[in-house]
TrEMBL record:
Belongs to the four-carbon acid sugar kinase family. The keyword Nucleotide-binding applies. The keyword Transferase applies. It comes from the Bacteria. Pfam families: NBD_C, SBD_N. It comes from Bradyrhizobium cytisi. It is an enzyme of class 2 (transferase). Residues 260-417 form the Four-carbon acid sugar kinase nucleotide binding domain. This is 3-oxo-tetronate kinase. GO terms for molecular function: ATP binding; kinase activity.
Length: 425
């Protein structure tokens, strides 16, 4: 297998978002969980997205895991590696975007790394280096209340400069509008000044196509699904990849019981849970009981087992920003996040043992904990449920025959859970 594109994603929902985008743009793509074991039987593909759970871990670990993934991808012929980060640039001042970018840049000898989280299809645009979420700057969006990495600065040149050892420049929209040659020239100018990475504005998909053409001539880029779209279109338009048809998934239906788990506390997920309550039973976990050692897992399982035979169920730990802040004040942010993620993983494991074959998980960290516990080594991409959220078919002997959907916290329409169930057969 010779890869046209190698990707490293810093969380599992982000990886499935990117795998979805690449697939829709004509690249045969597989999503792996971590660096694949040698005996994992991967299909012939143009792109591999290696999913890591490295967004919120200690920076040194994020670097070493990303480096191992890069080595594997380059070893399979990937001349370009995209480090997939969140379209809302989720990170702290300590990282992990900057440290991982610096390490991958040093490994491949890239002069200036192109960086953009723009993903216009989901309302993420970048102008003068400032990230907008819909109509508002990042720091005014619901991301200001994120449970793990609240975002308080919309200026990405500043944000990345706080995390990276190199200086950060800007390629603005006016330069981009003049085309690929103008971008190349600007990057050469920045490189001449010793600047090692540049935030690139992008507002429309056509901007991402220009960025993709430039990026495809580099060794490394950093961004969200939008730059993935640009790279995929560039690979197809320059004839490096023959576009594959993205027909719907005609493989056998999986059937079996359906469960949804929500650990995301985003505004979008809270609304989706409220809407799901009208069409399926919803159990709200008590996070304080989880943190104080009460057996919430057993309570959830007893509750679910009484209902699963009648139809889908949803189990949620999700809470409002005020409740999340209060819980974190009582127990600490990391301890609260970790304990709830592990409870979700316990519940998922038992539900699958009890016969659940179709599982929908909301939240990147939550999805990471669940997929790790289920020991699923990779996914093939099926139909799109919502922008950035595909149906995933598990690969690998043990859990083959399961369908999952891993929803990024902020993605999906108001009826996301019913939409997903309707498409997961
Ligand atoms: N009631 C709660 N109080 C405090 N923390 C919670 C609560 N419920 C869930 N959490 C934690 O909040 C974090 C949510 O992160 P997660 O990545 O799963 O969702 P998200 O950030 O909305 O999604 P994404 O990363 O895809 O945007 C997890 O660590 C989860 O365990
Ligand atoms: O880019 C995004 O917003 C998502 O794919 C994601 O990474 C959220 O966790």
């Amino acid at each position: 297998m010779t890869l046209a594109l190698g990707c490293i994603a810093d969380d599992y929902t982000g990886a499935s978002d990117l795998a979805n985008t690449l697939t829709r743009a004509g690249l045969r793509t597989v999503q792996t969980i971590g660096v694949p074991a040698d005996d994992l039987n991967l299909p012939e593909v143009d792109a591999v997205v290696v999913s890591l759970k490295s967004r919120s871990i200690e920076a040194g670990l994020a670097v070493s895991r990303s480096r191992a993934a890069e080595k594997w991808l380059r070893g399979r012929g990937a001349s370009h590696v995209l480090f997939k980060i969140c379209s809302t640039f989720d990170s702290t001042d300590a990282g992990n975007i900057g440290p991982v970018m610096d390490a991958l840049r040093a490994d491949c000898g890239e002069a200036v790394v192109l960086v953009t989280p723009a993903f216009p299809e989901t309302g993420r645009t970048v102008y003068q280096g400032n990230l907008f979420v819909g109509a508002v700057p990042l720091n005014e969006s619901p991301l200001k209340d994120h449970p793990l990495n609240p975002m308080h600065d919309s200026n990405l040149v500043r944000v990345l400069a706080r995390q990276s050892k190199t200086q950060i420049g800007l390629v603005d929209l006016a330069t981009l509008a003049r085309g690929a040659e103008a971008v190349h020239a600007r990057l050469a100018e920045l490189s001449g000044k010793g600047i090692g990475a540049a935030i690139i504005d992008a507002v429309f998909d056509r901007d991402l196509e220009t960025i993709g053409l430039v990026a495809a001539e580099h060794r490394l880029s950093v961004g969200a699904s939008g730059i993935g779209l640009g790279l995929a279109r560039a690979l197809v338009s320059t004839g490096k990849v023959k576009s594959a048809t993205t027909s719907s998934d005609h493989r056998a239906a999986v059937g079996g019981q359906v469960a949804c788990l929500a650990g995301s506390c985003s505004q979008a997920t809270l609304q989706q849970i409220a809407n799901a309550e009208r069409v399926m039973p919803v159990l709200r976990l008590d996070p304080d009981r989880i943190l104080t050692g009460a057996n919430e897992t057993q309570r959830a399982l007893d509750w679910a087992k009484e209902r699963l035979a009648q139809g889908p169920v949803l189990i949620a730990s999700s809470a409002t920003p005020a409740d999340v802040a209060a819980l974190q004040a009582r127990h600490g942010r990391d301890a609260a996040g970790h304990a709830i993620e592990q409870t979700m993983a316990d519940i998922a494991e038992s539900l699958v043992k009890a016969g659940v074959r179709r599982l929908i998980v909301a939240g990147g960290e939550t999805s990471g904990a669940v997929v790790d516990r289920l020991k699923i080594p990779g996914f093939l991409v099926g139909v799109e449920i919502a922008a950035g959220v595909p149906v995933l078919r598990a690969v690998g002997a043990e859990k083959a025959g399961m369908l999952l959907a891993l929803k990024s916290g902020n993605f999906g329409g108001a009826q996301f859970f019913s939409d997903a169930i309707g498409l997961m057969r």
